[in-house]
Each structure stands twice: as C-alpha cells, then as structure tokens.
Amino acid sequence: MVAQSNLCWIYLHLRQKGGAGKSDPLFINSKGMTLNRTYFIQIIKEIIESLGLLSDGYNGPSFRIGAATTAAKVNVPDHLIKL
C-alpha cells in the first residue's frame, strides 16, 4: 500500500522542508509547476513502455476508475470520491 511506503514519507518530508504547505499540490515537476493531466499520463505511459508493456489501454479514464475503485475499497466516503 502506498501510504505505508517509506518513499511516500520521504517525499512528503522533502516537500515540506522545501516550503510546501498543506494546501500546495502534492506532485510537482522539476520546475515547481503542478503536474497537468497530459504530462502525468505521458510519464505513466513512458514507464509502462519501459517495462516492455503496451500502454495503449492506459488513459485518463482508466486511471480515474482505478483510483475511485481503490478509494472505495479502503472506505473513503462516497462523497469524497469524484469520477
């Protein structure tokens, strides 16, 4: 689970140490800009392809559906899950 990952805590610590507040974006690029949907999907597809897999089936809707399903499985309230 991601929440139990040491990497998650290290990333959050570094972001806070760098001056990020609680309401700032969680993920930013090397220039400090918020990741947009197109950039995020492009990077994910590159990672998938680097693993020797086809990335054609991965797109914005598939990530949203997967995230919503995962959130529901860990009992996130329905009103907080957005599709």
From TrEMBL:
GO molecular function: DNA binding
Protein name: Uncharacterized protein
Originating species: Patella caerulea
Taxonomic lineage of the native organism: Eukaryota, Metazoa, Spiralia, Lophotrochozoa, Mollusca
